[in-house]
Task: structure prediction
Amino acid sequence: AQSVTQLDSQVPVFEEAPVELRCNYSSSVSVYLFWYVQYPNQGLQLLLKYLSGSTLVKGINGFEAEFNKSQTSFHLRKPSVHISDTAEYFCAVDVQGAQKLVFGQGTRLTINP
Amino acid sequence: DSGVTQTPKHLITATGQRVTLRCSPRSGDLSVYWYQQSLDQGLQFLIQYYNGEERAKGNILERFSAQQFPDLHSELNLSSLELGDSALYFCASSVSPGPYEQYFGPGTRLTVT
Result:
């Protein structure tokens, strides 16, 4: 069965610093990969997704992620964070044909001024 | 605002009771997904419907059931409630099954006392 591991449960960073949120997945077949963000007291919103093609994917709010098949990773990055990026971030995998998302445990990003 | 609506926002009930959570998908979306978010289990896929038919099943308990009606709204029924069923229940919708963006509703917070 496929699984998703987010290696950090919490990541504190200073405003305007770069950030990387790590995500590894396990699957023996092709997958689609997603990052979602959950702001306090809200539902989830898609940041970006990888389906095929270029391994570097750009999303909303200045985020990007790189798919690395050999390392089975899909790390999320932003070169300069803002206070408004404070939220919980979820990595998810959709195994082709499974028609369901498997989520990681989430990473809480805290931005300090 | 994702366009997905869920009612009620909050629900407090006692053990052994039965509740119904309602979801209206975005206009034009035919697929509805239900997820449970709890501190213990994280975000878990429960079940998916497409145009009224069940398409995929996840970790959904036998005490739980769902359906999608001809007008495409969906209901999640939870019965014989236990304290451990306390969680945030999200509904999401997408245009069709597959690696399409899922739009999440704001969730229903269920508290079982």
User: Anything to note?
Assistant: The two ends of chain A are 41 Å apart (CA to CA).
